[in-house]
Design a protein that fits this description.
Rossmann fold, alpha/beta, 5-stranded parallel sheet, 5-stranded mixed sheet, 23% strand, 361 residues, globular, 36% helix
Length: 361
């Protein structure tokens, strides 16, 4: 029996972002009930926003605050691969990599403004020009703190968030399902989603929320639930995705940060790390990684020398369906990973890469 058999989960993410979570719920035997609480749209005046920003190379740092910011604002980078780019967390970093850019700065743990601001590289910002790419009306903390530290901050607001407007028929369907016990949990991945959900459910659903588990990966969402007066029991969830990490040579460095953050946080996800190098001497963290693998049952480390690292993955992994794949290394390795790992079930849309010399289109 799978872990969610008989459990209905209300999925509140915007329609274009809900698919993967729904698949994971259904793979565990649960029933995913789609009920988007927000609608994400590109700004209608994007051309004016872009003109106000000007050339991206006049900024010392470009910060993306969400995957949606990347989706609607990556073109601001104008194919410049030499710019310093920061992400608030791994999901945003993966979106940046997927758009073909390298991430220069990202917190190893956490996925919010506070985690990014805690990095020592942002402690002293006197005279630095920073562009924050975000949605309209986002949090002001990042700008306020960077300004206080001496930075000159400018926004590029590239999308809007609006509460969804479900039809009366859909509201009634969800209420009926909830009253009959068909919804045992609801998921909210951001404070904005939770606030919007409270505003679009029926009064009876709002009452039922108090006895329904709230599943989130963010402590800020848990705190917002209390502020909103919700009595929901809160379940703080880890990332649901297993990860395959593939590094070539010095491409191991960004993957090390992912391994360390996942293991130190106690995240319940399988991690596979394949690290390829010319010789065993080049695998400078080999002893440490072997020791980690011995201590953590969900972490597997495979050193690769004398052969192509992607070939070792193809031979050693039976299937990659449901995995996030992170690859970092030389362009030839990245091209090979993107071309061959779908043969083992990897979703091409979930292969994130960091190519050291160029990013394939």
């Amino acid at each position: 029996m799978t872990r969610l058999t008989g459990v209905g989960v209300l999925v509140t993410r915007p329609e274009h972002q809900a698919g993967h979570l729904c698949q994971l719920i259904e793979a565990e035997g649960g029933a995913a009930v789609r009920y988007p609480a927000l609608v994400i749209r590109p700004r209608p005046d994007r051309a004016a926003v872009r003109a106000a920003v000007g050339p991206a190379d006049r900024f010392d740092l470009v910060v993306f605050v969400s995957a949606n910011a990347v989706r609607y604002g990556a073109d601001i980078l104008d194919h410049r691969r030499d710019l310093a780019v920061a992400a608030v967390g791994q999901a945003t970093a993966a979106a940046i990599n997927g758009a073909g850019y390298r991430v220069s700065l990202m917190p190893e743990d956490g996925a919010d403004s506070e985690s990014l601001l805690a990095l020592p590289q942002l402690a002293h910002m006197s005279g630095q020009r920073v562009l924050i790419v975000r949605g309209s009306g986002g949090r002001e903390l990042l700008s306020e703190v960077l300004t206080a530290r001496g930075a000159q901050v400018q926004y590029a607001e590239v999308y809007t968030r609006e509460p969804a407007r479900p039809s009366a028929e859909r509201q009634a369907e969800v209420e009926t399902m909830w009253r009959q016990g068909g919804i045992k949990a609801y998921a909210a991945t951001s404070v904005e989603l939770l606030e919007a959900l409270v505003g679009i459910v029926t009064q009876r659903c709002r009452e039922l929320m108090d006895s329904t588990a709230l599943v989130t990966g963010s402590r800020r969402v848990a705190e917002a639930a209390a502020r909103l007066g919700l009595g929901s029991p809160v379940v703080l969830a880890d990332s649901p995705d297993d990860a395959a990490l593939i590094g070539g040579g010095t491409g191991y460095a960004p993957l090390k940060a992912i391994v360390r953050a996942a293991l130190e946080s106690g995240a319940r996800r399988d991690l596979l790390l394949y690290w390829g190098a010319r010789t065993a001497v080049d695998l400078y963290d080999d002893a440490w990684l072997r020791e980690l693998a011995a201590r953590h049952a969900r972490f597997r480390y495979v050193p690769v020398t004398g052969r192509l690292v992607h070939e070792a993955v193809l031979e050693g992994v039976a299937g990659l369906a449901g995995f996030d794949v992170y690859a970092a290394g030389p362009p030839a390795m990245i091209d090979a990973v993107r071309a061959t790992l779908p043969l083992r079930g990897a979703d091409p849309g979930r292969i994130y890469f960091d190519s050291f010399d160029y990013a394939p289109a």
